[in-house]
Specification:
By secondary structure, this protein is of the alpha/beta class. It has a single domain (2-294), classed as Peptidase S8/S53 domain (Rossmann fold, 3-Layer(aba) Sandwich). Helices cover 31% and strands 16% of the residues. It has a seven-stranded parallel β-sheet, sandwiched between helices. Strand 4, helix 5 (136-150) and strand 5 form a beta-alpha-beta unit. Helix 4 (103-120) packs parallel to helix 5 (136-150). The relative contact order is 0.18.
Length: 297
Amino acid sequence: MERVRAILRADEAHRAGITGRGITAAVLDTGICAHPDFDDRIVCFYDFTGRSPRLYDDASHGTHVSGILGGNGCASGGKYRGIAPECRLVHLKVLDRFGQGRMKDLREGIEWVIENKERYQIRIMNISAGASREDSESEQLLQAVESAWDAGIVVVVAAGNMGPEPMTVTIPGNSRKVITVGASDEFRIHPAHRNASYSGRGPTKECICKPELAAPGTGIVSCSANWRIGRYYQAKSGTSMAAPAISGCVALLLSREPYLSNVEVKMRLKNAAEDAGLPFNRQGWGIPNMKKLLNIQ
């Protein structure tokens, strides 16, 4: 476990001045609050569930996910800094206070990102949500994420928490184009998952190897939506927490090499991945080695 976290350490990148500056990531989740760790880097918020113009997160899930990706650790003296602490964030609320949502809202959120990617210079889209039901709506969702990929956006999706059986990666993580992320540390004992064995496994029903990558997902401490009452951080578990770690890696890579295409980013992640000793249908290529990914000497 310590080796896993060492591979994905971002502090070496931060010391080298690689912080995600200049890169915008869109997060589709339960919302985001004005946590101090985001300072003035939330450049847009849009609510597809209630059409509220104000920043809010009634589940704290989206704030937590966004903190992993781009929190700067201000409220913790840097202890709980995210992977890309200077990236800009666009947050689209597509899930309710229970972490549930309509396929229509998620699909419209993805379409919004495609339509506004030039306006906000969106390079990355993080989706820590998914569906297990296969129907016409889920097929439309799958088509939407692939359209985002075709538009040049790096799409990162959680593998879902339906494991440990094979073929349990949720939609749209089953897309052959997007980067799907599983949890590398699910068997770690933690109050949130005492008998944790949750990460979605491949292959997909179409025999596509999934996930591509893995990252820590259990007991991850990040920003809380309850910061105004003194609860600045909280621990959460799931592949929802693993996906933004990889999105953060992408933000760092693009801030260093902004000319890379999404396909080139995917190949760089593959080439920088290290085997974590897990089954292939759980870890894919492995866990990105940050120094190798960013060519840090």
